[in-house]
Amino acid sequence: QVQLVESGGGLVQAGGSLRLSCAASGRTFRVYAMAWYRQAPGKEREFVAAIRGSGSRRYEQSVAGRFTISRDNAENTVYLQMNSLEPEDTAVYYCACGDGVDWYRYDYWGQGTQVTVSS
């Protein structure tokens, strides 16, 4: 069982930056693939970015070049640095953890952190 706790959300103006953090329990964090998803009001949850234990990364097209996913295996933490934020980025952001076989399949989820971008 893996527990995930997100933090770092908040209110920011368009063009600003935020860094989300996700702390994971468990001694084998380094082998897991970690991901960020988001869900805007009235919309389905969507993939944002992921990073495998090897360090390889994948991004959703609309955030590529603005968002960066990274991980600190010593701290069991994954980060999402979000720059040049747009009102369309407003959503609840969720951290997820999986075995990394499928970029888009994850077994454990956090509770989410709200990101609001004002225009």
Coarse structural class: mainly beta
Low-confidence stretches: none
Q: Termini, distance in Å?
A: 40 Å
Q: Biggest sheet, in brief?
A: 7 strands, mixed
Succession of helices and strands: EEEEEEEEEEE
Task: State mean pLDDT (0 to 100 scale).
Answer: 95
Number of helices: 0
Morphology: globular
Please state roughly what percent of the residues sit in beta strands, choosing from under 5%, 5-15%, 15-25%, 25-35%, 35-45% or over 45%. over 45%
Q: Report the strand count.
A: 11
Radius of gyration from CA coordinates = 13 Å
Helix content: under 10%
Can you offer a commentary on this structure?
There is one protein chain. This protein is mostly beta strands and 119 residues long. The chain has no helices and 11 strands. The chain has strands at 4-7, 10-13, 18-24, 33-39, 46-51, 57-59, 67-72, 77-82, 91-98, 108-109, 113-118. The strands form 2 sheets. Strands 2, 4, 5, 6, 9, 10 and 11 form a 7-stranded mixed β-sheet that branches. A 4-stranded antiparallel β-sheet has the order 1-3-8-7, with no helix packed on it. β4 and β5 (46-51) form a beta hairpin. The radius of gyration is 13 Å and the shape is globular. The model has no long low-confidence stretch (mean pLDDT 95).
